[in-house]
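TL;DR need structure tokens for one chain.
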Amino acid sequence: MRPIIASIFVIFLLSGCVTFKQGEPLKNGVVSFLESEYPQYSSHRFKLNKVVELHVKPILFNKIKEFCKNKNAIFEQYTMNIGWCISKDKIPLFMMYKSYADPDLGTFTIAEKQNYISDKDWIIYSKEFYPYLWSEYNKRER
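>> reply
TL;DR here they are.
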């Protein structure tokens, strides 16, 4: 019986009938903004360690860039598949990338720190898990 229930659950998940909302996004962060302003274009939200990931439709790309600009931060897209928004104090506000699930969902991923994570811990975490972004950023800082 369990395999049947699991199969039905997976079918609903993949068809978009079930939307997950895990993790605690920042109150004034990009994930909360996108979920409240554009719920029709944002789908699954997952928590992974210190990160909240939201899968969003590409139509929101310019809104995401504008959000970054309104935060007085720097938006950088290094390749078609990865970019971020980083404050002038060198604190990443969010990262954008294609995850393994995005091609099937027709989305890309926005990742930001969870509400209870300190800036210091977030910087350490981001340097460990997003070294490419820091490497590219540091090249441009020179």
